Structure formats: C-alpha cells, structure tokens
Amino acid sequence: MKVLYESVINPQTRHSLGEYYTPDWLAEAIVTEVVTAPLSQRVLDPSCGSGTFLFHAVRHYLGRADEAGTSDVDAIRGVTASVLGVDVHPVAVTFARVTYLLALGRERLSRQDRPAFSVPVYLGDGIQWGQNSTLIDTDALVVSTGDGATLFADELRFPDRVVEDAAQFDALVSDLADSAARPNRPPAEPLLRGVFRRHGIHDADQGTITATYRTMCELHDTGRNHIWGYYVRNLARPIWLARPQNRVDVLVGNPPWLAYRYMPAEMKANFREMSEARGFWAGPSVATHQDLSALYVARAVEQYLKPGGRFSFVMPLAVLSRRQFAGFRTGRWGGPNLGQMDVGFDTPWDLHAVKPSFFPVPAAVVSGVHAGPARALTNSAESWTGRLKGRNPTLAEAFKHITRTDPVTGGPSSSAVRSPYAARFAQGPAWFHASFSWSTATRRAPWAPALDARGSVVTGAAMRRRRGRSCLGTPVPSRASS
Ligand SMILES: C[S@@+](CC[C@H](N)C(=O)[O-])C[C@H]1O[C@@H](n2cnc3c(N)ncnc32)[C@H](O)[C@@H]1O
Fold first, then answer.
1. Quick one: pLDDT at residue 322?
2. CA distance 296 to 119
3. Would 444 be classed as within a structural domain?
C-alpha cells in the first residue's frame, strides 16, 4: 500500500505533510517492542499514512488472539476496538483502511458469522493546530464558527453520545450539512424528525442537534458554510480520543518531519506559539531547523496517551543531539501557560548505520513512558548497524543482517536479547546471523501480497469488489445482514 500510495500522491504534497514512510521491518520491530500485551492495550498511530504501523499492530494482536484461542468473531471485535489510526490526508486514510483490511485477512473477513464493524482509521488533524484543547467541553464536541466576519461566533455543538460512534457521526454531519444546503429547504421540524429517526438520536440530544442545525442553515444562508461539515468531521475523532476515558495505552508511528523553513506562514505562527508554550523554541539561530516532529510527538503524548502509557516514534537522528531539539529532550514539557508534563525517555535506537538508507536523512527511534519523574533523552543510543537485502525485507530477514549494540557494554543490547526474535538469532556472539526461513503474510508489494493460513490477503480492488465500500470507512455489514 505504501508503494502504491507514494506513486499516487505527488512528491510536493508529500513533502508539505512531512511524509517519509517507514519500512515494514522497522514498524514491526517497534510494534513488537512496545506493544507488550496486545490483547489488553489500545494502540494509536496518530499520523498513520498508508497504515504500515497499523498493519503490524493488527497482525500482532491477531497472532496473540490465535495463541489464546480467541474466536475470529471476538478477535475482529477486539482488534478494531484496540488498534486505531488517524491521518490528515484523505487519500492516506483510504489506503490505511485497505491496509487494515489486508491485515485482518480474507479468511476472517469472509466468515458467515463475521460481526459488523467499521475500520477505525479516521481523517483528522492529529496535532489539533492552534486548538490547545479549548474545544474539549465536558459533555459535547463544540466548534466555534467565529471567522472574524461576524461580531459574535456561533457554536456547533454535538453531544458526546452522538460523537461516540465515528461512522454514525460522520453520516449525521453529512446529512445535516446537505440538508442545510438544500435550495428549497423544508422547515426544520419535519426534516429533523427524519434525521433523528435515521441516526437514532436520543431524545435528550435532539434539542442540541436542532440548535446546531439552525446554526448550519444560518452559516449557509450568509455564505459562510463551506467548510464546517468537513471541519467538524476532521476534528471530532482526535477530540474524542483526547478525552481521558478514551486515551490509549500505546502510541506508535512516524510523525511528520518538516523543518520550520518549509512551513506555510500560518503553520509557522501556530508552530512557534505551541513550541514556545512547551519550551521547545530554541531561539532565532536555529529557528529554521526547528522540526515539526518534536511538537507532533509531544502533542500526541499530551492528548492521546494515558498516564503510564508508552510511546515509540521514528524521528530524525538530529533529535538526539541537535540544539533545536534540546527542549524536547528534557522530558519536561510545558510552561507557565500550559502546566507541566513529564515523560521518561528510554534508550533510543540510532539507525543511521542501517544501509541502504531508507530516508533522505538519518533516523532514530525515540521511546518512553508518559510518567514522571522526567528522564531526559540522551545521545547514548543503542546502535543498529547492517546492510539489508531486498526491497522490503521482513523483520526476520532484516534481523539476519542487523547488529544491535548496547551503548554501555558495547555488546549485544539487552533489548535485542529481550526481543521475541532473540532466541531464534542467538548463536553465541554471532547472534544476529541466524539462518532460518520464516514466512509471514507481510506485504512485499501491494499487487503481490503474500499468503498465510490465517491472514491470506487479497488486493484492495478485489476486497472492494467483494465488500462494496467497506474500505472507505462505512460500517462493514455482517454477513448475516448483507
Ligand atoms: C512521516 S509520514 C508517516 C506515515 C506512517 N506513519 C509511516 O510511517 O509509514 C507522516 C504522516 O503524517 C501525516 N500528517 C501530517 N500532518 C498531520 C496532522 N496534522 N494530523 C494527522 N496527520 C498528519 C501525513 O499525512 C503523513 O501521512
């Protein structure tokens, strides 16, 4: 999917969104390392791109579910409640949804008793630019429509019960936006009765939705409606995920990498303000090198990760030593206007000596826990070295050629020894040169998916032919009801 995605989106758009796509072996290594109890941890990739991390998190969950003897029905319900993704790019979201279905595998998807589910990959602004959490109300999603054109801003308000189910919420917002834009709009009362019935709106929420609908009509009639439906749908899932009860146990991924000098003017202003508030702004001499990746990781941790939860992200290697990342490295994020948040960093992985290079700039993996006391990120990293073979090796193939060296002892690192592959690779000092063959349903190319007994996969197009619009985020009906 990644390969296909990169061929569909032009390089300029990809650059502006800070897109470098993680190779499968690395995403799998991160997921395996940080998701230690897949059946009981909820995992989010807050900038999921075409879904590489989601694929491996889903496979990791399903592998454990198989070992535990979990039925396919329960495994589908469980995994779709546990592995979630968000991306701001609509095409990325579509690809990630297909990737998710590929990870579930044909066998599970074609079962007669397959439960209804929707693929939990959402369009959304993961960083919530400029929001600083002001939209989180106690019991509703509230969007202020102030655009500077009117003296008083109106609110679009959606009760929690309505926001809870992503697919239903999207359908409701589209329905309201389409109705508000109808040329000869019928009176609100009868029209909304139909909307409430179609979307199963609770009696107690109908007054709020009616007021919101009237505001949408007003926005439309005064020529200010263009983006609200889209905007509301984009914001809803990240805000819902940020509620304390919905936060996740693990964050994984590869945030957008984008230097300040390449940001558009409005993003620059927001970025600077949000970086300063967290003590990340390192001053004018390195301003042009300040990078979105640090702010993105910090925002993801502060918004979406439970206290005590773990995170692991691919970042530019510069994060380990360069001045523009000094504030991030302290692990004490915040300031007078924001409050303090402490994270404890683990030993990072330095990947610059893994060849051939997989990104245009060297990379590291930065992990830690959302808990105090703060433990700073150090330059003393576990070093990964080796030359990989093949275009998209699996983790097992990659680990045949990678040496992981502990920063203190200079020997094999303890996490390599802890790794689930360690036993397979342990051959005395040459632990990294195992020679066995290990097959998995990892994607080598989107048009030639590998097969295995449980998760035999089909192409996205074939999947869509079979399941209608299932990969586009609409609920997948159960076989019984289709
Ligand atoms: C470096 S790519 C990583 C993609 C994927 N996690 C991977 O490693 O293959 C960064 C992704 O961040 C997304 N992105 C950029 N800004 C975002 C935002 N504000 N909210 C959500 N996603 C965003 C881009 O669309 C892109 O897919």
1. 96
2. 24
3. no
Residue nearest atom 19 in ligand 1 by C-alpha distance: 125
Residue pLDDT, tens place only, 383-392 = 999 999 988 9
Residue 98, Cβ density class (10 Å: 0-12 exposed, 13-18 middle, ≥19 buried) = buried
One domain for residues 235 and 248: no
* 83-109 pLDDT, tens digit each: 999 999 989 999 999 999 999 999 999
Q: Which two tokens stand for residue 269?
A: 């202003």
Output the ligand 1 site: residues, CB below 6 A: 17-22, 45, 47-49, 52-53, 86-89, 92, 125-127, 253-254, 256-257
Which residues span the domain enclosing 151? 140-242
Is residue 48 within 8 Å of residue 97, measured between CB atoms? no
Closest approach atom of ligand 1 to CA 49: 27
Quote the distance between the C-alpha of residue 247 and its chain's center: 13
Q: Residue of the nearest CA to atom 17 in ligand 1?
A: 88
Domain termination site, one of 361, 391, 421:
391
Interval 331-349: pLDDT, tens: 999 888 788 899 999 999 9
Tokens of 357: 């290079």
Alpha-carbon gap, residue 325 to 122, rounded angstroms = 29
For the stretch 127-150, pLDDT in tens is 988 665 434 456 788 877 665 444
Q: Could you tell me the distance, in angstroms and rounded to a whole number, from the CA of residue 126 to the centre of ligand 1?
A: 9
Domain end, chosen from 206, 222, 242, is at 242
Residue 103: both structure tokens together: 């990870």
Token pair 């819902």 is found at 240
**pLDDT score, position 280:** 96
Taking phi over 0 as left and psi of -120 to 50 as alpha, with beta for the rest, 308 belongs to left
Mean of all residue pLDDT scores within the chain: 81
Q: Which two tokens stand for residue 99?
A: 């990737």
